[in-house]
Amino acid sequence: MYSHFTKLILSLAVAAVLGYLISGLTGLFAACCAVLLGYLFLHLYQINRLFRWLKSPKLNNLPRSGSGIWGNIFDTLLSQAKSRKKRKQKLSSALLHLNRIAEAIPNGVLLLDANGRIEWFNRPAAQHLNLDSTLDQNGILKNLVRAPEFHTFLQTAPDEQQPPEISIPIHTLHGIRNILITRSAFDKDQTLLVTQDITAAEQLNAARTDFVANVSHELRTPLTVINGFLETLIDMPDMPREQQQEFLGLMQHEGNRMLSLIADLLTLSRLESPHAEENRQPVNFSALIEQAAAEGGSLSQGRHTLTTDISPDIWVNGSQLDLYNAFSNLIFNAVRYTPAGGDIRICLQSEDEKHARFSVSDTGPGIAAEHLPRLTERFYRVDSGRSRHNGGTGLGLAITKHALAKHNSNLEIESRPGHGSTFSAVLETR
Ligand code: ADP
Questions:
Q1: Nearest C-alpha to atom 3 of ligand 1 is from which residue?
Q2: Of 164, 197, 230, which residue is a domain's last?
Q3: What is the pLDDT of residue 60?
């Protein structure tokens, strides 16, 4: 600054001396005025350039001005603009990063202002509450989520220790979902809502409760029978030996039912456990089906015409035990559900170079279409009396389904009442 001022004084002094030498005092005065006007003009010109640049301050159109005070001013502005640009870039990438984090959180997050107007929400919140990411921005939330209990909930004062929460059903593109909404105070006059889709967790809970109820029921029935016989035996010590033997036989039958139920439960829990040890090895699939068919034959005791069409030497990779469980269940079911005199046909053939198809067809009663999708559910039976009479636990097809899933396969069922059933599966061969 000092040097610019010195320059002006020097220019004025030189002009004054020259003016004075050329035409005395008038010359001195005129020369000084000319220098001052020149300076004034120069500064007005630079101010104008600066003003124009300030109206749209872009880095690449900042005026250049070499040396001098304007050169310094423009250089300073340039370096400030550059560091501002860097800061802006950093901020916007941090913002982008935060936005990506907010989108990646599986929970929905939604910010409301004092009037219940939506200020911001992430994608999961839009999915959970069925909001439109663009149209519903700035909308009043209670007009968009129409559930009276939710409106009351929005008015509940949040508590830091125990933020209020509510679970409401929301109609979404994927059907009705149960959404848990937790409300906490955020900044002054703002409310933060966190949403979570708990449909699957609730279904799992319901399935668990159903399962416990089913198992208890299945175990209670044989235990009640055993208890009944025991009481009779205690009350009647003089019961004839033959009748005693009959009662003991029936008790043993019920005991065996409980044992097979527990064995099936353990198999199922092992198959469902993600931590279960995988015992994969080359398995002679043809031999395994031959063996299951032979056992099916002894179960039938000649009551059915059993035919087999098993290609030799088909090998797969997998667990011998799980595969045996899966396919023997299907064969035994065919035997157990087909009335005497019926036909059962067991096939294992190559499907293509890398796959083999197993199928077991029977001329049994067949299954109505409405039961087919639920047949592999645990304890699902078309006719529970008949299943129990046949010694079924209601877990056979659930075991088959899980065992096949472990071998990247699935159970195909074709059945029509009065026309028998065919259960089949395709496995990858070695
Ligand atoms: P269960 O121990 O009762 O046999 P499963 O899970 O093996 O249990 O089978 C479920 C139900 O599917 C059975 O209760 C039965 O009603 C029906 N089902 C299975 N296989 C056949 C079949 N081959 N023919 C007719 N119904 C069958």
A1: 394
A2: 197
A3: 77
Does any domain span residue 202? no
Going from the Cα of 199 to the center of ligand 1, the distance in angstroms, rounded, reads 30
> Beta strand pairing status for 108-112 and 118-121?
antiparallel
CA distance linking residue 189 with residue 113, whole number of Å: 6
Binding pocket residue ranges, ligand 1, CB within 6 Å: 329, 333-334, 337, 362, 364-365, 367, 375, 380-383, 387, 392-398, 421
Q: What spacing in Å lies between the alpha carbon of 383 and ligand 1's midpoint? A: 8
**pLDDT bucket at 389, cuts 50 / 70 / 90:** confident
CA 223 / ligand 1 centre spacing (Å): 23
Contact in structure between 283 and 318 (CB atoms under 8 Å): yes
The predicted structure's pLDDT at residue 423: 98
| Minimal-distance CA residue to ligand 1 atom 2 | 392
Measured from the CA of 392, which atom of ligand 1 is nearest? 2
- The closest of 306, 304, 360 to 330, measured between CA atoms, is 360
307 Cα–ligand 1 center, Å? 21
pLDDT of residue 199: 94
pLDDT of 121: 93
For residues 285 and 404, membership in a common domain is answered with yes
**Is the domain of 68 the same as that of 172?**
no
- What separation in Å is there between the alpha carbon of 339 and the centre of ligand 1? 13
> Tens digit of pLDDT for each residue in 302-355?
999 999 999 999 999 999 999 999 999 999 999 999 999 999 999 999 999 999
What type of residue is 136? Answer: D
In a domain, 149, yes or no: yes
**What are 63-122's pLDDT values in tens digits?**
776 667 888 888 888 888 889 889 999 999 999 998 888 888 889 999 999 899 999 999
